[in-house]
Amino acid sequence: MSASYTDFGTDAENGFINRGPTSDIATGYGVNGLRGFVPTKEEWLGYETTTVGTAGNVLNRLNTQNGLQSADPMVMAAREPFRVGRFLVKWVKAPPFFPDMAVKYLRWIFEDMVMEVSGVPENSIDKIDIQNGAVHATTSYPGIYHESGNSVTLKVRECAGSPVRKFLDFWISGVSDRKTGVCHMFGAKMAPILPNMAGSFIYILLGPNCRPESIEFACMWHEVMPYSEKASHMNSGNIGDAGSGVDMDIEFSGQYDRGPEIDLYARKIVEGYNLYGQSYLNQLLPSYMYDPAIFGASKEEWAEQNSIDIEARLDNAQKQADAAGESPIYTQDLRDTRAQQLEPYFAKFRQGSQAGTFGEMGLINNGSTDTIDTRTDAIDNAAGANT
Questions:
Q1: At a CB cut-off of 8 Å and minimum separation 6, what does 323 contact?
Q2: Which residues are bridge partners to 145 per DSSP?
Q3: Exposed (0-12), middle (13-18) or buried (19+): which is 202, by Cβ within 10 Å?
Q4: Which region, left, alpha or beta, applies to residue 105 given φ > 0 means left and ψ of -120 to 50 means alpha?
Q5: Which of 151, 218, 243, 246 is the most buried (most CB within 10 A)?
Q6: Quick one: which of 295, 97, 121 has its CA closest to 189?
Q7: Local structure of 88: helix, strand or coil
Q8: d(CA 86, CA 66)
Q9: Is 171 helix (H, G, I), strand (E, B) or coil?
Q10: In tens digits, what is the pLDDT along the chain, a chain of 387 residues?
């Protein structure tokens, strides 16, 4: 019988237990589900409406009234703490003078290996202070909005072979040669202008569920490039020290930008990455474990070298002894005696696979293994020996 739910999520068939304010167990608590509460443009023009909204009901004053805290889920949701830790860095433009291999290294180092993003600017309005009266009482007036910086730092980890150092050397030397200072871009016939030397990337700070509806913040740096090499980690350190991991803060400078169109573009990127759709239930093993030769091996071929089944081990020992021109420890007459005297008493407890190949073994259907079944032949033989 299928469960029935009211609009308030009370499951009568399970003892009237509450399962959230929904009829399909898809919305859960929180205003507007994944979207959150965001004032409309008509209500609050200029408020950021393209990222995730407040989770709970901010219009209910019970959560602060007289210092008393409400236990209602919709009120508690409004105090959900801000959490960080999952983010994406996606390059949307590579320097045009980069060859294809350099673009692959750009994505590997400064997308896949980024450990931290720092340097998001906190811009401000200039303040004009005016003094008035005999006591010089000061009043502040707003001036003009100014940006405080255009640099961002990506923390990455250097690897054996110094790919980070070498990549930075390549980029910087193509812009200004370390010997001549010439902007040669390694022979690329391009105008020596910033768009031909720099790239652009978007930074996306994700909510805990990593969904496009839950983006907390997104911004871009247009036409950025590194302006300094990294070589201090090439110092030897104390003799005899093995060293340790090297984390490097790489600073890029360009033009900082954020706004609603960047937020919407970020949603497309997050949807495309599909991080929220991955879990431990879908795991990728090392490539060699999917070798067709393994999955195509017959049950007998696999058992010959790997099974701990007694009969399989004895058969394998017999083949190895025959190949070496020796006599096995358990000769055939000993095995026959064992089968006649002891097999009937424990054969009925033995189980084995009915699969024909290794690839057919252990297939899951409705939570159980299809190809494992009782060895009826052993049971029948045992029963015949007992009669």
A1: none
A2: 125
A3: buried
A4: alpha
A5: 218
A6: 97
A7: strand
A8: 37
A9: helix
A10: 333 333 456 667 777 777 777 645 566 777 777 778 888 878 888 889 899 988 887 777 665 666 777 788 888 888 889 988 799 999 999 999 999 999 999 999 999 999 999 999 999 999 999 999 999 999 999 999 998 889 999 999 999 999 999 999 999 999 999 999 999 999 999 999 999 999 999 999 999 999 999 999 999 999 999 999 998 888 877 887 777 789 999 999 999 999 999 999 999 999 999 999 888 888 889 999 989 998 898 888 887 778 888 888 888 888 889 889 998 899 989 988 988 887 777 777 667 677 888 888 877 776 666 655 544 444 455 445 444
Tell me the residue type at 160.
A
Residue 328: CA count within 13 A, CB half-sphere = 17
Which residue is it, tokens 């293994």?
A: 369
Quote the CA–CA distance of 232 and 16 in Å, as a whole number: 66
pTM: 0.81
CA dist 166 → 151, 230, 237, 243 (Å): 22, 9, 21, 20
How many Cα atoms within 13 Å fall on the side-chain side of residue 45? Answer: 1
Question: What three-state secondary structure class fits 264?
Answer: helix
SS3 103: helix
